[in-house]
Amino acid sequence: MYVQPLNPTGNVGLTILASLTPIIVLLILLAGLKLSAWLASLIGSIVTILVAWLVWKAPIAQLSYAWLIGALVGTWAISWIVFWGLTIYNTLVLTGKFNAFRDWIVRNSTNDARVQAILLAWSFGALLEGLVGFGYPWAFVAPLLIYLGFDDLKALQVSALANNAPVSFGALGTPIVILAATTGLPLLFVSSSVAKVVAVLALLPPWILLYLVDRWKGIKEAWPIAIIGSLSYILGQFPVASFVGPYLPDITGSLVSFAILLLFLRIWRPKNVLVLKNMQFNGGENKKYSSKDVVQAWSAFIILIIVVTLWTGPWSPLTKVTLATLAQPAYSSLLHKNVSVSFGFNPFVAGTSILVSWVIISLVLRISPKIMGQAVKRSFQQYWGGILTGVFVVGLAYVFNFSGMAYSLAWKASDLSLAFIVVSPLFGWIGCALSGSNTSSNALFGVFQATTARLAGLPIGLTPALNSVGAELAKPVAPQTASAGVSTTKYVRKEGIVIRKNLPWAIGVLVYLIIIGVLYAFLAPSLFIHS
């Protein structure tokens, strides 16, 4: 069995630098050279395999098998979800139901661009994250914002940064379930620990959205909507995550926030309404869509919520089916035990639940086979680059894990003692930046975070929570997520431009998370101790 060396170069600094090679290469190719995500991920995969082979001395055959396992995970566990989510979106667009939903939103709130950024990107986006995740909220929300007059790049940036807080509880809490499973900590304790961090983090994004849309003037004129937006989401999310579990917090947080914001907008509007010059909606025009159109549009989301929740929740036997498993084991010199990268083929994964949702939606709305075929064709045209990115970037992440590069990066971390709190979120951030998946990042670094906390005498729940939330903050720059997000805009296969725009903000919010972690460690460590 391949034994992962901790310090293959013989120099700690060089080993850490070599460990960071995959993310450095990706960021240079994407943010620096602005390559398409699929091409950058392909080059990054080749570089990572070469480094793992030449520096870590991992057998090339085993590296190739680990890469193949990652490619299968990227395709089946991620791209399969996003593809059918996009197909639902395209079906609603082709039938006019998306337009009916969009106009209903504007008519029942306000056409102020700052308010709509929070209502749609923040509150409604959290619902899509809770159900689907993996960049789908960007893909759905960005066209709504473009309709309101946002240029494509700004719409994508707002959608991406609004999506920061909900990710840990996305896809019905899958990242938290994996984090609890890998660390061996009780599920509700892990969910509660992450919720405490997310609750503080969630205070910031609505303010960022106001600034992105209208700079300091937006904050000055529309600050009440930022306060209501963040507090209403926390009100719906925090109690459920803390006392019920990780499966529904995003859905309850989104619905509570969306409802409270719509009610709040009945008694408050910005004194000066910001209508962007490119806005296609005119509030004075005659109604274009009937009540039936609006009901049918909302029924699509209701069907999606019901099917996905029943299908993928902990009560469903479908998630426990595994027809075949591929695994590549190695021995970890850091953890002193066997570790492995693996792929279990379950035909009833979350993506299949979204496929079934689409079929039911099509039957309920009486959509013709011709329109259904057009929706599938359009989704493939939009997302083929994203499918390739899922293959290459998750393959890269699995080589990073199998070869021991991840464990070499973590090698000296426990020596930092209390100062580890400062770097703990970075591991989650790196894991998600490489894989595009909070779930993968938690699987990659969850055990390490809990082990380091024990060795350093830190609260056992805090560092895994910081890993998960740190992973959230890499989503705006993760190639796989960006590939899905840009698929419904003119930036299709131009993810590098979007990632470059998002990078400073992603780093800034990461610094905010580090401050949250330090404050919790010094002021309230008992909140993260499991009795």
Automatic annotation (TrEMBL):
Q: Name one GO molecular function term.
A: lactate transmembrane transporter activity
**Keyword presence, Zinc:** no
**InterPro entries, per the entry:** Lactate_perm
Q: State where the protein is found.
A: Cell membrane
Keywords tagged on the record: Cell membrane, Membrane, Transmembrane, Transmembrane helix, Transport
A cellular component term (GO) from this record?
Answer: plasma membrane
Membrane disposition: Multi-pass membrane protein
Keyword Transmembrane tagged: yes
- What stretches pass through the bilayer? 12-31, 37-56, 63-86, 119-148, 169-188, 194-213, 225-245, 251-268, 294-313, 343-365, 386-410, 416-434, 503-523
PANTHER family in UniProt: GLYCOLATE PERMEASE GLCA-RELATED (PTHR30003:SF0), L-LACTATE PERMEASE (PTHR30003)
State the name under which the record lists this protein.
L-lactate permease
Please tell me the species this chain comes from.
Sulfolobus tengchongensis
